Amino acid sequence: MAKQTDLRVIRTKKMIFSAFMKLVEKKGLSAVTIQEIADEAMINRATFYAHFKDKQDLYQQIFNKAITSFAKILDADIIRDGNKLKINTIETLLTQLFQEIWANREFFVLASSGTNQNTLAKMLQDLLQKRYAQLFSQLKITQDETPIPTSFIVSYMTSIFIGTVHWWVYSDGSFSPEHLAKLIIQLIANGHLTVLGLEMVND
């Protein structure tokens, strides 16, 4: 019985998420009302408030859901071999990440656009800082023997990633998650990481 209840909760939240994103894309966040969300999701207001405190809580939970998906995949401990980065592992993780993004394309169209992009960028920067600060420190990334601040690397990675996601979710889907992951590996392995003095190895 508990499992059935959990599935109902998941389905209801998914309908609310979808309705909210559709309305925000059409009208903008400030113009959307709780009643409109309930009507679009085909639920009543009481059901909405059973899952969310208010519109802002719903908005925040959608972003938290996205960041949680990233956190499951972005594991710094498994992408390194000493002071080198494992290219095949990173490609696999990127593919999984892009599969997750494409499965939730509707959200990422919204999240990577306008002022929402700033919210997503800040949350992603915080995640990368927590997950990768120690790794970057141990890799001792320098430019002309001058240490490069981790905050700069995180900001740089975030801007590239969000720009890529924004382009991709608005595209016609001709680039598969696997294709996009391979392309990014090719670009960073022969460009950004080389400039930073990092090495990538096949694993």
UniProtKB/TrEMBL annotation:
Ranges annotated as DNA-binding: 33-52
Entry-linked SUPFAM superfamilies: Homeodomain-like (SSF46689)
Sample GO molecular function, one term: DNA binding
Alphabetical keyword list: DNA-binding
Organism placement in taxonomy: Bacteria, Bacillati, Bacillota, Bacilli, Lactobacillales
Domain HTH tetR-type: 10-70
Protein name: TetR family transcriptional regulator
Pfam families: TetR_C_8 (PF14278), TetR_N (PF00440)
